[in-house]
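step 4 of 6: structure.
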Amino acid sequence: MSKPFEERVFRDPVHKYVTVQHPLIWKLIGTREMQRLRRIRQLGTGYVTFHGAEHSRFAHALGTYEITRQLVSRFGREDDGHWSREDDLISMCAALLHDVGHAPFSHSIESVFGEQHEHRSVRMITEYSEIERVLHDVDPALPSLVARVLQKTHPKRIVSSLISSQLDADRMDYLLRDAYMTGVSYGAFDLERMLRVIRPFEGRIVVTHSGKHAAEHYLLARYQMHWQVYFHPVTRSAEFVLRSIFLRAQHLWQQSYRFAHVPKGLHALFSGSMDNESFFRLDDAIVQAAFDAWRDERDPVLADLCRRFLDRHLLDYEWMQAYDEQHVQWRRDQVAKAGYDPSYYVHIDAPMDWSYAMNDDARGDSPLYVWTPEGALHEMSTQSAIVRAIQGEQRGALRLYAPRL
Amino acid sequence: MSKPFEERVFRDPVHKYVTVQHPLIWKLIGTREMQRLRRIRQLGTGYVTFHGAEHSRFAHALGTYEITRQLVSRFGREDDGHWSREDDLISMCAALLHDVGHAPFSHSIESVFGEQHEHRSVRMITEYSEIERVLHDVDPALPSLVARVLQKTHPKRIVSSLISSQLDADRMDYLLRDAYMTGVSYGAFDLERMLRVIRPFEGRIVVTHSGKHAAEHYLLARYQMHWQVYFHPVTRSAEFVLRSIFLRAQHLWQQSYRFAHVPKGLHALFSGSMDNESFFRLDDAIVQAAFDAWRDERDPVLADLCRRFLDRHLLDYEWMQAYDEQHVQWRRDQVAKAGYDPSYYVHIDAPMDWSYAMNDDARGDSPLYVWTPEGALHEMSTQSAIVRAIQGEQRGALRLYAPRL
Amino acid sequence: MSKPFEERVFRDPVHKYVTVQHPLIWKLIGTREMQRLRRIRQLGTGYVTFHGAEHSRFAHALGTYEITRQLVSRFGREDDGHWSREDDLISMCAALLHDVGHAPFSHSIESVFGEQHEHRSVRMITEYSEIERVLHDVDPALPSLVARVLQKTHPKRIVSSLISSQLDADRMDYLLRDAYMTGVSYGAFDLERMLRVIRPFEGRIVVTHSGKHAAEHYLLARYQMHWQVYFHPVTRSAEFVLRSIFLRAQHLWQQSYRFAHVPKGLHALFSGSMDNESFFRLDDAIVQAAFDAWRDERDPVLADLCRRFLDRHLLDYEWMQAYDEQHVQWRRDQVAKAGYDPSYYVHIDAPMDWSYAMNDDARGDSPLYVWTPEGALHEMSTQSAIVRAIQGEQRGALRLYAPRL
Amino acid sequence: MSKPFEERVFRDPVHKYVTVQHPLIWKLIGTREMQRLRRIRQLGTGYVTFHGAEHSRFAHALGTYEITRQLVSRFGREDDGHWSREDDLISMCAALLHDVGHAPFSHSIESVFGEQHEHRSVRMITEYSEIERVLHDVDPALPSLVARVLQKTHPKRIVSSLISSQLDADRMDYLLRDAYMTGVSYGAFDLERMLRVIRPFEGRIVVTHSGKHAAEHYLLARYQMHWQVYFHPVTRSAEFVLRSIFLRAQHLWQQSYRFAHVPKGLHALFSGSMDNESFFRLDDAIVQAAFDAWRDERDPVLADLCRRFLDRHLLDYEWMQAYDEQHVQWRRDQVAKAGYDPSYYVHIDAPMDWSYAMNDDARGDSPLYVWTPEGALHEMSTQSAIVRAIQGEQRGALRLYAPRL
């Protein structure tokens, strides 16, 4: 006879505790694919600007799970009867696993090599992996049920909405966590209040009328974090150096250049043969150690870029109010004259953001609805001048990056 | 003509801002040896227990500098005239650089390979390095002046005390930072209050009489963090696996085993030829990436230990109130029968701590004095029953580690 | 020979410490007029909704002083030379004293009896009072110099701006303090950041370009606090009961009704003979004790209203999207039929707010300017869609208050 | 048919929300006796030292209720079956009502007039009052059942322990609340952790072995708050002035002195005829308003003492390491020569504290037990050198108070 599962907790700086009450969740956390997320930073190159931002995707996965756990425990009490115990568990699994397919520094790796984390997460859950085995042991249908939440093809749309919508556990955790770790206070909206005003309603996640101002506050936290943290010019500079490293390494690989050392995970990236096992072997440490080895490579471009990345000699930037072809060309020529290949050393950044989308956005996230006392649903931007102000595409000034000469 | 240096700041989650007002500090932060500290975790294996504890020694170095900056700016106002502008700068440099010689996971590396971070820090400051060059450019005597602070041979003892004593900027920053990042509240003493009650007095750092309770609170924070965080059994388990990896790899090296991959920094460790340049190439990423490569090594002990470390399949532990030779031997036999070499898989931990030492301790840190209104100095433990309670050697129960069979 | 003044501190929950470095400030805090502010709640009837909101105007006065102290100590370092030591002191005095003329529950008392706190503050500083004496002892011109800051007739406009403008120490303290005490997180903008981005420039207080988002965040904190806290319907309900008490008592007084007890301060209010001495005798305790005595008055209206206020049996409210004369009349009739005089028991509230005014507002507060790197000043709303969204008059739905029948 | 009770919340700065899930609790909060607690400061004269300490006993009552609510909701899940639904409700009622019999500035009033808050609380619950009626309406036995919890005669000792023991909801709330409001960080122990390690066991409240350090931290918070806040010399000075006012007024009353104004509540105190109705009419505002009126009394001692209290011209103090009869007499003579009656103007304070009592203490509070994994209970001081250090009677230096001459 087996002992009943005893509640276990993780200390968490954002939520105080992450509470595990179900053995399946405990086992999933223990899989090697989840443990790998400890070695991938949540904010990619963000740490070069904000030295506190060393937190891992593992911490964020636990936090997303914890918010979901709290939400569904309320839904159980408040729902009109359409919410089931099984929905609880599937929601919590999906929350925990939603980012398991993230590559290290995934913005760069995805843009250069075409990896795609949503797709990879699904494969990590449904194809050969410890995760798949753990889920399968409970119920052979479970891997694909959980995957369908991430793919937004789960029969209950609301389950997907918990993990991915304008008001999801994913965003709520990362805003709080990134704010806490960077020391930037803008992201610190009132989570307790949000948990109190979110309701399941006709297959959607809605906000009660009395929670309108809290939802405004949350959307503004997103807006502020985007511009203050996520698009910070120094972070973006590191990102461009990183991309150039990957581009150069890929170029050399295609030229049959002989690297002194290419770790397993990168090998699969270069050769376009990425299976789950190779992907599992790809993390921040692997990438950084490869860069360290490449400091000594004969190719001067690769060696220089790796030194710049590791020693934080990044590219400088200047602002452009609008795209100025002539100026960009002049800068490229100047850089070339100094001996740098502009295709690796000159970059233009056009930061833009959809802090709030009135219509279903690229991720397929549905808009946010306010639920009035009379039972009507109103899309959030019709209720708030502030939300209207940040809705739609937001663009910042252009930045032109180049080395200090 | 050069522009005056403009004050610059780093966002810091613990101190809100780290403020740089002197160009020398700015340049030191930019050296590659300081940037390397971004790739070394402050708490070594602490992150396997507390998922928030991913913060780097770089962050702690900035924090130690910031506390020192605040302390010396008060000293300038309050000192009896023996404190000089130059003391300010040397104190701040020493605070920033005090941990620059830390190896990755230094507890393990120091115990296995005999590296010693205090010694290495001095070499990183005085021998060939970017740090040495930056200091030398200001004044050729500066490297050795700063090094003498760390060696406690600086003519003004109080300057060393700022960085290393019972009440130093080093400990004050790490207690606050480790508490913040782990989410454990015990370390959160009242820094503002401490800064107000610390005074320079006759070459010592003392605490005013009215600050006695604040100092008690700070010493208790240390005591609590030692037992709740630093000696946590799971963290220690990871530590033992780590040591076994290093011991096994060293053993194989001595047997002329052919590793598929040994990075530069580890090569120097194994061969005992560690110069500054090789040391610079040693960080957490290098170590973790080597472990990742060693998952595939032919040696089954090394491969198994590396998998355990990375996938967090650590050793289990049991408590022993006292050392029980018979039981330990039984456990070793049992482990051996299961096919594991007990010299790598069975460990005994005897956690002990000197939360407060009345006499000069092993680090040469002088005790803490309370300065009475009458101008007398009383050693702290004579003033507080609580401090007496935690003074001297503290021992916890023994723990016996072994694999789950 | 006198001892130099030793720095003194007050523990403050919002700023950690309020630091007094000048004997004049210390003496002003000790005057009985300043001590009286301990007996006047900062948020008037706010405590009936938010039980934490018991904080006094004294605490807010210290906090406004502390923010001003921090601002002017930066100005001394950064100003173009137009800022003097004397400006420091006058600014700090004005900050400390700016609310000294507040009556208890001043919204109600001002609306019923025509008292006016700005005017009274000036009288408390320049006419017979301990404050006047303390200032006069330092310099006979000082009382009027300080008063002119509050009157906005001080020759340096920027000094007034510190205490009263879109971005003043007054608002910065009360937003943080009210948020802290109510437990509502919306008001918690980033003070440290604001202090870093505020600059004196050509007689104005401006915000540097890099501080634009911080200023947005601060203006949104104001907006949120207005709607979430200051206009809370229950707080407003208490406010209307309070006004009715004062109106009824005034009416009875005019009818030569014989009250069992009228304290000195109220006597002066009723008779319109309010001098500084009588004003000094008017505080929250006096008002509440009078209401307690009036529970037993023969006049049933006065007795009932006082019981409602003290026992928190306030008026209920309903929303009106627009003013509906017919409905209001119906409600008044209904209330009258139940035996209540509608002139005391039915109230309409039309909350509105100027969270940010582009033009000089009613208080004469100038708008907020962003200072670009090129040295240009741009009015804030031209720089931010969010500020445009909350600029100008904001109106909430109407509320109709009446007793539960 | 009645609607089901909808969960309601109060915003609370310490617990974020106080949640009411039972209509009885809601009705009790609405009684006029509970509302009266809004007009009584939790820390009596503490606000003269810590200007943030204006929080009311009403806030503390809600907080004590909230902690109890969280504790009993865990007990329901974890108990061995002896805990019932009814125990939940009685515990929560007792927590909410435990301080309802507190007089304003109760230390002074209890010492001068012999009022006793525990006794009065019982009367307020069981004799004529709105509270009694609300409880009686649910069940005629309820008033006395709740009262027996406060009297520690409830059949289940553990129910009383929740509200009054070494580790009760009362102390946990006031330490956190007083720390939050004063801005003193020492009281901020880790409530979430405590709630996790407290267990009901054989009719006691015990702490699990893993919670030993958390309990140490909590006991130290008490110790620190006692010496840093509760026994602060300035707070005690105000306390002595207050007692002298009451003593003088009582003396005058006994001499048939004709006061210009004596409010109802004080009348009953003086005449020793305190019933619930008169007690209800006694609060901080009444007392302070009486003092304000007494500023103008003909009796110079009473008038002077009242002015001192309200204008914060308190008594100065000096330290005495031991009682020095000769010095005290000299001080009394000096004060008498200056025209002050030493019986009102000279006071000796001998602060002492029982931060932790190994045996049942004066309040009848049982000691704290640690529950080992083996199922044994060990009294806390046998488990912790730190607790031994603060156990038993703690004495501070004596203070001698007298007017500045």
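step 5 of 6: annotate
 - Residues 213 and 384 of chain B are 9 Å apart (CA to CA).
 - DSSP finds 20 helices and eleven strands in chain B.
step 6 of 6: archive
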